[in-house]
Amino acid sequence: MKTILTTSAREAAEFIRRGGTVAFPTETVYGLGANVFDEKAVAKIFAAKRRPNDNPLIAHVGNFGQIESLVSEITPSAQKFIEAFFPAPLTLVLPKAERVPFSATANLETIGVRMPKNDSALEFLRQCETPLVAPSANLSGRPSPTTWQAVYEDLNGRIDCILQGAAATEIGLESTVVDCTANAPLVLRAGAITLEDLQKIVPDTLIYQVSKDEQPKSPGLKHRHYSPRARVILISDLKFRVSNGSAYIGLNEPYEKFDLIKICQSVKDYAHEFFNFFRECDRRHIKRIYCETVEEKGIGLALMDRLKRAAVSGTLSP
Ligand code: TXA
Ligand code: MG
């Protein structure tokens, strides 16, 4: 299949209307979109990404009215979050409407809904005139794409179209996912809308922790994620020896020499840069990526979540 590159939301929306797949920028990462109500189009997303079919997709809306076409109920906590945040890097899990095919939700009775806070995404969604399911536009397991070039690297020839954004996506890591079906909202995946932000609106919001013998609530949590080909090693102490083929990303200057170094100005900047840095390391055949750990609060919680998943196992002493 030939993948068309375009900067025209109208041209890209034509592919959606014909039942195709289109990668598009959002404020978090690029998404791979298809019409949520078109089962054949939804199936194309799983095939293109090589995504396990037990991992549900997030539905994206361009206006508030579309939320009602996707869910059977907007729970009180969800209503509060919608009013406080939407459009935002925030996905709310709600009971799904009957119309929504089970292929989109991986057989769950719930669906994740999000309204992206990005002009290109909103313009594209408006042109499509339907909500779109959109996982991150990478091959399953690879680092999420923050530029159209990263999408191209993974999916050229596998999808119909890439809507090209001018710059890297603003936030650089995926949305916060909150289950709003129970009494107390549960954060299933940390993101730029932080626990602290959510608790200001609904004080009993909790972070979901998977216990060892329980099935995770968010099926995506059990899959291997965000991995570059290089080995990812988390470090909190910067005094250690490195061998050739090593790279470093963090807030502080390391003592040793590395083949590739990225010093970030803030935790926010670190969150914005690390997926792209992982891909850069792969292009340069780096073998080990040392990532400095950060405090697990604010967006630092989301960053540490992604770094831990990318690492072979927790914090290692090098
Ligand atoms: O920022 C984002 O959320 C990006 C952009 C494109 O919007 N999308 C994204 O999608 O990251 P994806 O498919 O890569 O991650 C979706 C996550 C997975 O961990 C999945 O298991 C969880 O959301 N999820 C989706 N629907 C769910 C549901 N009904 N119940 C629980 N978890 C759900
Ligand atoms: Mg993903």
Textual characterization of the structure:
The chain has 318 residues and is α/β, with parallel strands linked by helices. It folds into 2 domains: 204 residues, DHBP synthase (Alpha-Beta Complex); 86 residues, Rossmann fold (3-Layer(aba) Sandwich), CATH 3.40.50.11030. It is built from 10 helices and 15 strands. An 11-stranded mixed sheet has the order 1-8-2-3-7-4-6-5-9-10-11, with helices on both faces. Strands 12-15-13-14 form a 4-stranded parallel sheet, covered by helices on one side. β9 and β10 form a beta hairpin. The C terminus is likely disordered. Magnesium ion binds next to loops.
By CATH, the architecture of the largest domain is named Alpha-Beta Complex
Strand content: 15-25%
The CATH class name of the largest domain reads Alpha Beta
Number of discrete domains: 2
CATH superfamily of the largest domain: DHBP synthase
**What is the approximate shape?**
globular
| Biggest sheet strand line-up | 1-8-2-3-7-4-6-5-9-10-11
Radius of gyration: 19 Å
> Care to count the β-strands?
15
Question: Tell me about the biggest sheet?
Answer: 11 strands, mixed
The percentage helix is 25-40%
Summed up, the helix count is 10
Helix/sheet category: alpha/beta
Named once each, the bound ligands are: threonylcarbamoyladenylate, magnesium ion
Any chance you could write out the topology, listing elements then pairs?
Elements: E1 4-6, H1 9-17, E2 22-24, E3 31-35, H2 39-49, E4 58-60, H3 65-70, H4 76-85, E5 90-95, H5 102-105, E6 110-114, H6 119-128, E7 132-133, H7 148-155, E8 161-163, E9 176-179, E10 186-189, H8 195-201, E11 206-207, E12 231-235, E13 246-250, E14 260-263, H9 267-283, E15 288-292, H10 299-310
Parallel strand pairs: 1-8, 2-8, 4-6, 5-9, 10-11, 12-15, 13-14, 13-15
Antiparallel strand pairs: 2-3, 3-7, 4-7, 5-6, 9-10
This protein binds threonylcarbamoyladenylate (TXA) and magnesium ion.
